[in-house]
Amino acid sequence: QVQLVESGGGLVQPGGSMRLSCAASGSIFSIIKMGWYRQAPGKQREFVASITGGGSTNYADSVQGRFTISRDNAKNTVYLQMNSLQPEDTGVYYCYSYFTASWGQGTQVTVSS
Q1: Mean pLDDT, contiguous 10-residue spans, the chain (113 residues)
Q2: Which listed residue, 20, 47, 68, 92, has the most CB atoms within 10 A of its CB?
Q3: pLDDT value, residue 28
Q4: CA 20 from chain center: how many Å?
Q5: Quick one: pLDDT at residue 2?
Q6: Residue 92: its pLDDT value, please?
Q7: What is the sign of the dihedral through the CA atoms of 72, 88, 101 and 7?
Q8: 60, 46 Cβ separation under 8 angstroms
Q9: Chain CA centroid to CA 91, Å
Q10: What distance lies between CA 17 and its chain's CA centroid?
């Protein structure tokens, strides 16, 4: 089982930037695909970005060019760098392990002036 703990959320103004982190337990982290999802109030959870163990990335159309997912296997951590944030990016952001189908507890991101 992989335990996931997100951090880095908070309040940011439109146009601002924020970086989320997801620390994972387990010795298999370096080979497993990881992802970020988000859930806005009253909406279903949606895919944001993913990264394979080899570093291949995939993004939702809504964040392409603004968000960057990366990983540091030495630290068992996956990151989500978010730039040019907009109010529609507001929501709870969750880290996800595809291999174990495990979710983190989520971290709130609020984009507002």
Answers
A1: 91 98 84 94 97 95 98 94 98 95 96 97
A2: 20
A3: 76
A4: 6
A5: 81
A6: 98
A7: positive
A8: yes
A9: 11
A10: 14
For residue 33, what pLDDT is reported? 95
Q: For residue 75, which phi and psi values (nearest 5 degrees)?
A: -105, 5
Q: Which residues contact 14 (CB under 8 A, 6 or more apart)?
A: 85, 86, 87, 111, 112, 113
- Name which of 77, 60, 94, 72 is nearest 22 in CA terms: 77
* Token duo for residue 34: 């990881």
- Given a contact cutoff of 8 angstroms between Cβ atoms, the answer to whether 32 and 99 are in contact is yes
Neighbours of 28 (CB within 10 A): 14
State the amino acid at position 26 in one-letter form: G
